[in-house]
């Protein structure tokens, strides 16, 4: 940054163009370089769960529309965002409640943390939500949530709201009724698109995965089968992305979603990439070293690695970690980079 002498011709020029809604580029204060104001943060489940249960007695799902705590990055105050490009929240629903049907142009996903018996209905198809399941609500699909069990259910929500906001392209509508009447059999999307089969007349064109749920039992089995023989990635252990069966790509045009396994005793090498990433601990415990912060983590904790921040993970017990980032969008737009210790040719 160049700061001119206050009484110089250059300073006068700077002041005179202010009224023209212009500023000299040579005085810019924003640095050009990777990274964002977001900071490494952990939301511990043992702190969050009692507060969520408190909210149950103070506001109904209907009043709240969604009974959610936004996980706001302390480096992004006032935004409600966990990174500059992603929103995450913790949602709780109590038995018998309905979170009323609506739709929005933003893409949403849920990762079920705790409790049995909740379901969501997406475009007329009811989807049971069990712990560890990853559930999709693509942009502009009607969705309402309900709960037939007998104890509160808690899940992690993630949405690409910051993209919609950036583009000025967020629309939302309420459904005429609280809940959709199911119009499709349960498991319709899984049979149509999730059995290594595709309807013969199907033509692509959708930007998102047509599946509504990636069930945890199948995901976990795949991870464990791969972990036993290895090899493990030096930073990530076994790390897989949830795939769109139409093209093998990410589940959403914006959000990339991952699941990984770290065996007990794993001590990962330092890694960084331009996609700020939110993690949810599914199983196990360990430590996340993120920039200059160190967080011990336990099941259901959420922690965030901001863009381009070096981090490494170690596992005190066998760990399964769910995570999501904006890598899907960054790759398409040509922005994505990483520093991967196993691929030094990729170093920038
Ligand atoms: O469950 O539909 O955390 O619309 C934020 C906005 C959840 C939802 C959120 C939403 C939802």
Average of per-residue pLDDT values: 96
Number of helices: 7
How much of the sequence lies in strands comes to: 25-35%
Rounded Rg: 22 Å
Strand order of the largest sheet: 1-19-16-21-14-13
**Heteromolecules bound:** 2,5-dihydroxybenzoic acid
The unreliable regions are none
Major beta-sheet overview: 6 strands, antiparallel
Number of domains: 1
State the shape: globular
Q: The CATH topology, please?
A: Jelly Rolls
CATH superfamily membership, which one?
A: Jelly Rolls
Q: By helix and strand content, what is the structural category? A: alpha+beta
In CATH, what is the class? Mainly Beta
Ends apart, CA distance between termini: 25 Å
Measured as a percent range, the helix fraction is 10-25%
CATH architecture: Sandwich
Helices and strands, with pairings:
Blueprint: H1 9-18, E1 41-43, H2 45-58, H3 61-64, E2 68-70, E3 87-93, E4 98-104, E5 108-114, E6 118-122, E7 125-129, E8 134-137, E9 143-147, E10 153-159, H4 161-167, E11 172-174, H5 188-193, E12 213-214, H6 216-227, E13 238-241, E14 256-262, E15 272-273, E16 277-283, E17 286-290, E18 293-297, E19 302-305, E20 311-315, E21 319-325, H7 327-333, E22 338-339
Antiparallel strand pairs: 1-19, 2-3, 3-10, 4-9, 4-11, 5-8, 5-10, 6-7, 6-9, 8-12, 13-14, 14-21, 15-22, 16-19, 16-21, 17-18, 17-20
The chain binds 2,5-dihydroxybenzoic acid.
Description:
With 348 residues, the chain is α+β, with helices and mostly antiparallel strands. The protein has one domain (41-339): Jelly Rolls (Sandwich). It contains seven helices and 22 strands. The protein has helices spanning 9-18, 45-58, 61-64, 161-167, 188-193, 216-227, 327-333, and strands at 41-43, 68-70, 87-93, 98-104, 108-114, 118-122, 125-129, 134-137, 143-147, 153-159, 172-174, 213-214, 238-241, 256-262, 272-273, 277-283, 286-290, 293-297, 302-305, 311-315, 319-325, 338-339. The strands form five sheets. Strands 1-19-16-21-14-13 form a six-stranded antiparallel β-sheet. A six-stranded antiparallel β-sheet has the order 2-3-10-5-8-12. Strands 7-6-9-4-11 form a five-stranded antiparallel β-sheet. Strand 6 (118-122) and strand 7 form a beta hairpin. The two termini are 25 Å apart. The model has no long low-confidence stretch (mean pLDDT 96). Bound molecules: 2,5-dihydroxybenzoic acid (GTQ).
